[in-house]
Design a protein that fits this description.
Layout lengths: L2 E3 L11 E7 L2 H11 L4 H4 L1 H6 L9 H14 L7 E9 L8 E12 L4 E9 L5 E10 L6 E3 L13 H8 L7 E6 L4 H12 L3 E7 L1 H11 L7 E4 L3 H13 L5 E4 L4 H8 L13 E7 L7 E4 L9 H17 L6 E5 L10 H14 L7 E6 L1 H5 L1 H6 L12 E3 L3 H13 L4 E7 L5 E2 L7 H20 L4
Parallel strand pairs: 8-9, 8-11, 9-10, 11-18, 13-16, 14-15, 14-16
Antiparallel strand pairs: 1-7, 2-4, 3-6, 4-5, 5-6, 12-13, 12-17, 17-18
């Protein structure tokens, strides 16, 4: 066990020194900005910093001051020290990758109040002075020796960053005419109007006009210029939306305040619905902290116990979305409880069958592997520990779950326990359906709209092959 021990006033000698060395990382700057609230663009905006006087991102000046405090509080004098005064003279900027040595030297002692004056010096890797100053402290008079406290792990995640990237990717695309089905609550209506304001969709609001207007009034939404088709109830709104899609008057559907089953009922009708030869499936798009890229999960909302042919369509729908989003060769992990083909676990047999279907061209555009347990699909170290040699293991773009229950629980665990942001689409119908949860915020609804917009434009512009 490591210990932390002080130097009492009586033990301290003039000229005594202590030091520590740190290399500046991007995480250090971000943590200091989060802790202090100092978001000066010279520290956190690389584009701005490149044109600033230092032409690079630099540390907050007080990052060096905090390191001086660390030496005083942990080394010399150490635990029990009371800070009275600190002067600092900033000489040079500290940039990413710079290594700084912080050294304090005892300059004077005063027995009357146990005051100790220390000269403080920070040097970079070239020996240049970065900061210099002087500290006045009250030194401890009693010996302290304590176990060094283990600090908690800190994981930095910019909430919504990948979804904002997704929104920016739509800036050059034309808006898509979208039937918004029964947007009779503030949240779903606000999401639709915001998507319209950002140029992602041209919203056509379908539902009882009075309820839509009441929802707009609730959050101050502006309905001027927005087309509203007045129908008496949610079921009629779903029927009307499907009719508009069948006639080609809209290219997307967006779920409002309506239950998923009620929305999909007219969609799946054989004679007047939006069915194709492809089975419809839902795809979650998740921005998961500590996972280095977006993660698609399917199917967690439509198909309860899919058979092998249905899973084939689930996989192809997810691959098509990933391709539209710019993933050149989506890596598809076929999940089960184990990574070996086991006759008593049907999902392992389905995974093996899907891999063979991909080999024979029945599934195209992606790289499949399975069965894989969840840890092997998303963790390279877990896959290595089990000796799994696979270009998919540990770096999956798409997770295909055994059934709806497993997928729904997996997605919601990542959302509620891991802090993931979620967006969602239903694919396999004539038009994509933006399917969000009642609990989803505006950003999730915008991200879902952005995915659908990108998907529509991708299908419109791609070659027949």
């Amino acid at each position: 066990m490591q210990f932390i021990e002080n130097r009492t006033f009586d033990e301290i000698e003039i000229g005594e020194t202590a030091e520590l060395t740190r290399t500046l990382r991007a995480e250090d700057i971000e943590l200091f900005a989060v802790m202090s609230g100092d978001v000066n663009p010279a520290h956190v905006d690389a584009d701005y910093a490149s044109s600033d006087m230092f032409h690079k991102v630099i540390a907050h000046g007080m990052w060096g001051g905090a390191l001086i405090s660390a030496v005083l509080g942990t080394e010399l004098p150490g635990p029990g020290t009371i800070y009275l005064h600190q002067s600092l003279d900033f000489r040079r900027a500290v940039g990413l990758g710079d290594t700084v040595t912080i050294r304090v030297t005892v300059a004077d002692k005063s027995a009357k109040h146990h005051h100790v004056t220390l000269n403080c010096l920070c040097l970079n890797q070239s020996g240049d002075t970065v900061i210099e100053g002087q500290a006045l402290v009250v030194a401890p008079t009693e010996k302290v020796r304590r176990p060094r406290v283990s600090l908690p792990e800190v994981h930095l995640h910019e909430r919504g960053a990948r979804f904002n990237d997704l929104l920016r990717a739509t800036s050059h695309l034309d808006p898509v005419r979208t039937a918004v089905v029964h947007p009779c609550d503030a949240l779903s209506l606000e999401g639709a109007l915001e998507a319209g304001a950002k140029g992602m969709i041209v919203p056509i609001l379908i539902g009882p006009r009075a309820k839509i207007e009441a929802a707009a009034e609730e959050f101050g939404g502006e309905l001027a210029g927005v087309e509203i088709i007045d129908v008496p109830h949610s079921h009629a709104a779903a029927e009307q939306s499907v009719a508009l899609a069948r006639s080609g008057k809209v290219d997307m559907l967006m779920k409002g305040k309506i239950h998923t089953d009620e929305l999909l009922e007219p969609v799946v009708k054989k004679d007047r619905g939006l069915r194709t030869e492809r089975r419809m499936s839902h795809v979650f798009a998740l921005d998961v902290p500590n996972y280095p890229k977006p993660l698609l999960i399917s199917d967690a909302a439509i198909n309860i116990f899919p058979d092998l042919q249905t899973k084939r369509d689930i996989v192809q729908n997810a691959i098509d979305l990933a391709l539209a989003l710019g993933i050149e060769l989506p890596k598809v992990a076929l999940l089960s409880a184990v990574e070996t083909v086991t006759p008593s676990i049907p999902s392992t047999l389905d995974a093996a069958g899907l891999c063979k279907m991909a080999e024979r061209g029945q599934i195209t555009g992606g790289l499949l592997d399975g069965p894989l347990a969840f840890d092997n699909a998303v963790s390279r170290s877990a896959a290595d520990a089990k000796g799994i040699l696979s270009p998919v293991a540990g770096q999956a773009d798409i997770l295909i779950v055994p059934d709806l229950e497993a997928g729904n629980m997996l997605a919601k665990q990542l959302i509620y326990l891991a802090g993931a942001d979620a967006a969602g689409l239903v694919l396999g119908a004539r038009v994509p359906i933006i399917l969000t949860s009642r609990a989803d915020g505006v950003l999730s609804r915008l991200a879902s709209a952005a995915m659908a917009q990108i998907f529509v434009h991708h299908n419109t512009t791609r070659s027949p092959s």
